[in-house]
Design brief:
The chain is of the alpha/beta class and about 325 residues long. The protein folds into 2 domains: about 120 residues, Rossmann fold (3-Layer(aba) Sandwich), CATH 3.40.50.740; about 130 residues, Barwin-like endoglucanases (Beta Barrel), CATH 2.40.40. The chain is about 20% helix and about 20% strand. The chain has 10 helices and 12 strands. Strand 9 and strand 10 form a beta hairpin. The longest helix is centred in the first third of the chain and has 12 residues. It starts with 5 loop residues before the first strand and ends in a 5-residue tail after the last strand.
Amino acid sequence: PYPVRGLIVSGASLLTAWPDPALWRRTLAALDLLVVVNRFPTADAEYADLILPAATPFESDSYQFHDDWVQLRQQVIPPQGEARSDYQIFTELADRLGYGDCWPRDDEAKIRRGLEGTDITLEQLREHPAGVPLPHTPMRYRKFETGELRPDGQPGFNTPTGKFEFTSEWLRGHGYEPLPVYTEPVEGPLAAAELAKTYPLVFNSGARMQSTFRSQHLNIDGLRRLQPLPLVWLHPQDAAARGITDGDEVLVSSPRGQIHFWAYVTEDIVPGVVEANMGGGGPLGPVEWQEANVNSLTDPANRDPISGFPVYKALLCEVRRVVEKE
């Protein structure tokens, strides 16, 4: 109903996570107020009116669950410099907005709130720093007969009909197909045959890397040594057809733009398909990573019709070897 005029970006980076970074640059520049909360510089921080340094997990008390085990995570050092935990930042913001009573006031109150309903106390966690097992609930079968699957306590399954549904009545009620239906990608070699003459390879991005997580960790030398450069995976057939060998600098182009990557030639990917690393485009790491924002190649208008989530895969691209620096 009204345009967004202010934004808090905490532990994230819109410019490296979402399609079309140029669009997001214009968006962030148009805001009246942008606040960035992070431990390290981000691409978004260049547009921020305020940058709030976030504390690390070692600078506050908290707790963590591991399946059926809960453990106290104790503070190792006090927050350094002006850093504060994300929780403290948002607690104080809630105070100023008149919602302070909705938030536990400090780390101890936060932990006690988080443990509610577990029959485990903060005192127990302090006595057992290695952790405390959660009460084990014996496995029960045929819960659909006893009403344990439904919030109303009635027998049946938690579906609109109460029955086990092979089709989704929820999706049908919202005007969607109740059964999974294959939909050809709108920017694929079949649906966009003419475009595929220029961009014949199927483009994918977003696969997990072992040395980084999205745009994080590029500032850690020891991790970056595991993979110093942003890579694009190609099958040997596709590489040979383009005169590309493993380790070559290449240019990956799509209808939206072009980005420099380095070729990783492998049979672990099928012919006709490439996979480009995500996470580049921020101020951390070497210039090769800073210039490798894979979302310059993706399309903000190409979205899943049900969730609205953008498509990061099943697009079209071409890869060619860089002879001279372009």
